[in-house]
Amino acid sequence: MAIKGAITVDTEKCKGCGVCIPTCPTDTIALSKEVNSKGYNYLYMANPENCTGCTNCATVCPDAVITVYRVKI
Amino acid sequence: MEINDIIKPENKVYGKSPVLKDAVMHYCPGCSHGTVHKIIAEVIEEMDIQDKTIGISPVGCSVFAYNYLEIDWQQAAHGRAPALATATKRLMPDKYVFTYQGDGDLASIGTAEIMHACNRGENIVVIFINNAIYGMTGGQMAPTTLLGQVTATTPYGRDAKLNGFPLKITELIAQLEGTCYVTRQSVQNPAAVRKTKRAIRKAFENSMMDKGTSFIEVVSTCNSGWKLSPVAANTWMEENMFPFYPLGDIKDR
Fold first, then answer.
1. How many domains does chain A have?
2. Which of A41, B9, B22, B226 sits most deeply, having the most CB atoms within 10 A of its CB?
3. What is the pTM of this model?
């Protein structure tokens, strides 16, 4: 049984601090080259196929901008 | 499988707690305050005590904590949160009362209040954010600043002869008879966040069991004050703060 995950990011509230990125075990997430209206490089899934929905990124997010989804297939 | 097939309400495993308001926090990017606010919100949600919790916000960066958690709040004069919490808990013993204080608030101007509240064994929870610096006012030396640490007021590093020694207030408080649970935690990685969350939950439960004061120090980062990036600040904390402020339970009874 495989597990697939995905995250959504509230890009307007993301401050691009990047503390989530070292916690990702599958190298899924990165900071975008685009910026939000406050000028922060927000988080996005650079490699969405890698995500396992482990919730590490959302657990350490200081601004609670990450929502995690997970399915078993 | 397409991403849109995964992102559905029934597949959601983690998201923002409804106890946390939608307001954007004023904290700097990567500030530990946000993470601690979030886990307090999650504990309140899990224990289903949103209408029975009263927070006391301090003076410092977290003075606006009342803007971020959907519970009842009071805001205390600088360092006086434990005094206000004492009154609140004594008048309303059926409420969960906690103070949220930084190191400038708790370990400097509020030392008398915290010592005596803990010594009286008030049934409150104290959440103490120790980032070894005065964050709000621009990164001056705090009592908890490490020896050799560069701040705005110790530009050549903290010197024990001139500036005194860093204050391990959590160890001092652990000696007081009134405290039942004294612990030091951190929030720089998922494991640490989960441990801190368990500690906060235990502290809230203690406050209803008439056991005394529960005191949780969270060793935190102030990346703006330390002049580091958020990720570098986490590493700096692990390398420099943890040897002097070791994590773990100091007292549990």
1. 1
2. B226
3. 0.95
